[in-house]
């Protein structure tokens, strides 16, 4: 008789986006004429840039010709892409990362969910609260987080590091020392970031205490401030304690194409065991590579035309972000983020709960956002708006909020 991985049974249903969708559908059904503006989802809306589309077309044609056909990709990913990443994302920023420390994947969600396999079950995990849910749920599946208490909405063995307005969204070092620390900078959902000195503080903390940092830099391309690091490897000592995960999704609109990568430096070791070699083993055994055509598309992101085109897309989302953030602040809202990321995180007015504000905004302004409490207990009383819509809709949404 087979038995199931009982850890899956511990997972509470993921109700956030399905509840949002249900509420919006019900409202639209009752109000068929309502012109709903959707600022809830974390997905890009602009089409793939022309230089990337040309690279895709070219690669597709190569696949139809015996001389230029490509089958299985090398285990770590194609050298042309890993080399472009090494040069543009690391060397250009003064980071010492070798091409064979870069592992091409189908995206940051899979990597950030799979990386926990490298660590034994008794590791203690710390996350910032609120948090991107993948880090938590994948560790539940790995049996590390104990039991879920529906009342406090907390896992018994997980360390929550509140990341709230009171601490400027920079969590304090936890009282109990963790083994694995997840950091997402710039942050989803809060849209806030940390300075290089602050990240350096976490690197020093990790090296002092024997922790590993899983650093999710999915929003690196949205950084506009000079003192925010684009990579954790800009910090001294990060090669000894940090794994970095990146994505082409938000940077270049690859949410439907699928491409990302993870960096595991050779200096990251425990008891003489190299995490880089473990990840290489895992990659070789369980993953057969991102598609050749998509890796060529990824290479085009670094070409002069491609990089100018994707920068223009990011800049246009950031124009929306600034408009929403500044507009809300002018209206007296406490709004955060939106400077180095496409997310605006606002404090709900008059102490409303996140879900009450969701209903209020949907019914009174026909705007959809995401309730902060869906990202963790410290998200209660906050609300997330995204800048991934059009400029026109961002301005219209603001007008409606003004008229509330
Ligand atoms: C969107 C997002 C990802 C997922 O990226 P993919 O490469 O599309 O899987 C990872 N981490 C964070 C924080 C995200 O917001």
Oligomeric state of shown chains: single chain
Q: What ligands does this structure carry?
A: pyridoxal-5'-phosphate
User: Percent of residues in helical segments?
Assistant: 25-40%
Which class of secondary structure composition applies to the elements?
alpha/beta
Largest sheet: 7 strands, mixed
What would your notes on this structure say?
By secondary structure, the chain is an alpha/beta fold. The protein contains 13 helices and 17 strands. Helix content is 37%, strand content 15%. The strands form 5 sheets. It has a 7-stranded mixed sheet, sandwiched between helices. A 4-stranded antiparallel sheet has the order 13-14-17-16. The protein is globular and about 60 Å long. The chain starts with 6 loop residues before the first helix and ends with a helix. Pyridoxal-5'-phosphate (PLP) binds next to helix 5 and helix 8.
Give short descriptive properties of this protein.
404 residues; 37% helix; globular
